């Protein structure tokens, strides 16, 4: 004759093991998903910033408008100033996205550290300062505070400034 209480106890024990195994599996899946989300966020932020660079490399006109706008925005025609403002907006939105991911732990600290230097280089240029004075309200308060802090700290010289200060050497 079957001992039904013993059978029930074995069933409960097997059920408990199944629950523990399920929780371990779900924990592994969550961890794997978190790593994937971090990687996707990092790639998304880098891609957004990289698109601006690629656009300027591919278009000498955009390159010149951007660099003239950064150094001497008053020299831009009204059309060039509009294009410069669009370039600034796109760059800053990419930086804002990277900053958002960094704040929320979805962007590697080392990656953000390097991007922060790039942001500082942009936002301390005369043209960006003028753009920022006109358009700060288009960005999150947290990012706006970062930009103000970076402007107060100063940034690195831009690549165009470095190229202008070094004589061309024959290859």
What can you see in these coordinates?
By secondary structure, the protein is mainly alpha-helical. The chain is built from seven helices and no strands. It has helices spanning 4-58, 60-71, 78-103, 109-123, 126-135, 141-153, 159-165. The longest helix has 55 residues, at 4-58.
Number of alpha- plus pi-helical segments: 7
Radius of gyration: 26 Å
How many strands? Answer: 0
Question: Shape, please?
Answer: rod-shaped
* Structural class determined from secondary elements: mainly alpha
How would you characterize the largest beta sheet?
A: none
pLDDT < 50 stretches = none
In N-to-C order, the SSE pattern is HHHHHHH
How far is the first residue's CA from the last residue's CA?
96 Å
Strand content: under 5%
Mean pLDDT across residues: 82
Helix content: over 70%
Brief summary:
The protein has 171 residues and is mostly helical.
What order do the helices and strands come in, and which of them pair?
Elements: H1 4-58, H2 60-71, H3 78-103, H4 109-123, H5 126-135, H6 141-153, H7 159-165
What descriptors fit this protein?
171 residues, mainly alpha, 7 helices
């Amino acid at each position: 004759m079957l001992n039904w209480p013993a059978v029930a106890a074995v069933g409960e024990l097997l059920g408990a093991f199944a629950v523990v195994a399920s929780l371990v599996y779900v924990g592994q899946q969550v961890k794997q998903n978190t790593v994937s989300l971090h990687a996707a966020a990092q790639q998304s932020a880098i891609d957004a910033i990289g698109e601006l660079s690629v656009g300027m490399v591919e278009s000498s006109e955009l390159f010149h408008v951007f660099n003239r706008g950064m150094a001497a925005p008053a020299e831009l025609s009204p059309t060039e100033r509009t294009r410069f403002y669009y370039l600034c907006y796109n760059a800053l939105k990419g930086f804002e996205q990277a900053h958002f991911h960094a704040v929320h732990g979805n962007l590697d600290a080392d990656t953000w550290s390097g991007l922060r230097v790039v942001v500082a280089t942009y936002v301390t240029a005369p043209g960006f300062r003028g753009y920022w004075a006109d358009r700060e309200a288009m960005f999150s308060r947290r990012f706006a505070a970062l930009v103000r802090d970076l402007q107060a700290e100063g940034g690195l010289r831009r690549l165009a400034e470095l190229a202008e200060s070094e004589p061309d050497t024959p290859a």
